[in-house]
Design a protein that fits this description.
single chain; 266 residues; alpha/beta; Rossmann fold; eight-stranded mixed beta sheet
Length: 266
């Protein structure tokens, strides 16, 4: 699938043209049908989640959690619907990584707010910080004091999933990056990470994975190869055409498919 924009200007900004009459009604029914089918496929997931970490809450930076009626929140829900269509409804498909070339493109915020949006569908949602070098999700959720996370799982230092329950959404769990290791790309390249992704896909309805910028390190490409599905993020004033072209070229050598792209402008 080509990297066509799903929602061109996701953050706050000029509202899209208003639809009216039968067109708006038809679009509403279409989205409702997609969401309904997504909810129906949740019945065969495992029901037990063990919370090892402290409960956390969304910071004010995650506006979706605090103003669900905003233009931004509506665009996130539209993006969620598009992703549901492209992910399909078969078991184990709804896992994807958010990739971008440069720092400051809004990857982590988009990943976190999309996880909040997916959790509203009443399906078990897992948000994973796979940026083992400079994690950001622990700053977007307040209360993450535990040092145990993905890094410890990959090194065999944690034998249970050290999850944080996100206060508010009933179905959202957060797995932080943990303590930065000396060899992040080696850990992510191993078979253990792929096994974890497969297990998460069997346990959760939706798995969203944050990644480091691909122009600086190869971690994000390794993660994309393991997760198989990616959403690309670019920033209108911070991402060059060359950055996007190079990212696409590197993804061509992986097993990942591009679900779509988001152009941030904030």
């Amino acid at each position: 699938m080509s990297a066509e924009p799903i929602e061109p200007d996701l953050p706050e900004g000029k509202s899209p043209e208003d639809s009216s009459g039968a067109g708006a009604e038809g679009e509403g029914k279409r989205e409702a049908g997609i969401v309904e089918r997504a909810i129906r496929r949740m019945s065969d997931r495992r029901d037990v989640v063990v919370w090892e970490g402290e409960p956390v809450e969304a910071s004010p930076a995650l506006s979706y959690a605090h103003d669900s009626g905003s233009i931004r929140a509506e665009k996130l829900r539209s993006l969620r619907t598009e992703l549901l269509m492209r992910l399909g409804t078969h078991q184990g498909a709804a896992a994807f990584a958010i990739l971008g070339a440069r720092p400051g493109e809004g990857r982590s915020q988009l990943c976190a707010e999309l996880a909040l949006a997916f959790a509203q569908l009443a399906g078990k949602t897992l948000l994973v910080d796979a940026n083992l070098r400079k994690p950001a999700l622990d700053k977007l959720f307040r209360g993450t004091r535990s040092n145990s996370g993905l890094s410890e799982l990959l090194q065999g230092k944690a034998h249970t999933l050290p999850l944080h329950r996100v206060i508010g959404p009933q179905h959202l769990a957060l797995l932080t990056a943990g303590t930065p290791p000396a060899n992040p790309v080696d850990l992510l390249s191993g078979t253990q990470f792929e096994r974890l992704v497969k297990d998460w896909s069997r346990t959760y309805d939706y798995v969203l994975i944050d990644t480091p910028p691909t122009a600086l390190r190869s971690d994000g490409i390794v993660i994309a190869n393991a997760v198989r599905n990616v959403v690309l993020v670019a920033h209108r004033n911070n991402t060059s055409y060359a950055d996007v072209t190079e990212l696409r070229r590197r993804l061509d050598s992986t097993q990942a498919r591009i679900l779509g792209a988001v152009l941030n402008d904030f």
